[in-house]
């Protein structure tokens, strides 16, 4: 699954276009590597998103095309 779609489906970032822009600006890392929005994310990857002065680091637990709001937290675990 593409990283921009994963960020939207897991609700780490609210909209896919914003996730896409964050990737283009170099604020999204997978396993400590800056990536593009089209990069593939796999189960077990460590994703870090830089929001201004703070960062959110999560581990991918599962991948789904769509989720309900209540189930979105099950896709990742905060580190």
Automatic annotation (TrEMBL):
RNA-binding S4 domain boundaries: 1-64
Record note on quaternary structure: Associates with stalled 50S ribosomal subunits. Binds to RqcH, 23S rRNA and the P-site tRNA. Does not require RqcH for association with 50S subunits.
Family membership noted in the UniProt record: Belongs to the RqcP family.
Function: Key component of the ribosome quality control system (RQC), a ribosome-associated complex that mediates the extraction of incompletely synthesized nascent chains from stalled ribosomes and their subsequent degradation. RqcH recruits Ala-charged tRNA, and with RqcP directs the elongation of stalled nascent chains on 50S ribosomal subunits, leading to non-templated C-terminal alanine extensions (Ala tail). The Ala tail promotes nascent chain degradation. RqcP is associated with the translocation-like movement of the peptidyl-tRNA from the A-site into the P-site.
UniProt entry tagged with the keyword Protein biosynthesis: yes
Annotated gene: rqcP
Entry keyword Signal: no
Protein's recorded name: RQC P-site tRNA stabilizing factor
Gene3D superfamilies: RNA-binding S4 domain (3.10.290.10)
GO function terms (MF aspect): ribosomal large subunit binding; rRNA binding; tRNA binding
Species name: Lachnoanaerobaculum saburreum
Swiss-Prot/TrEMBL keywords: Protein biosynthesis, RNA-binding, rRNA-binding, tRNA-binding
UniProt-listed InterPro entries: RqcP, S4_RNA-bd, S4_RNA-bd_sf
Pfam families tied to this protein: S4 (PF01479)
CDD domains the UniProt entry points to: S4 (cd00165)
PROSITE patterns for the chain: S4 (PS50889)
A Gene Ontology biological process term: rescue of stalled ribosome
Entry superkingdom: Bacteria
């Amino acid at each position: 699954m593409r990283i921009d779609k994963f960020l939207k489906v897991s609700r780490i970032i609210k909209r896919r276009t914003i996730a896409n822009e964050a990737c283009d600006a170099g604020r999204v890392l997978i396993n400590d590597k800056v990536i593009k929005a089209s990069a593939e994310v796999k189960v077990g990857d460590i994703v870090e998103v830089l929001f201004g002065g703070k960062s959110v680091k999560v581990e991918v637990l599962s991948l789904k095309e769509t989720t309900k709001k209540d189930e979105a937290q099950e896709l990742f675990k905060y580190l």
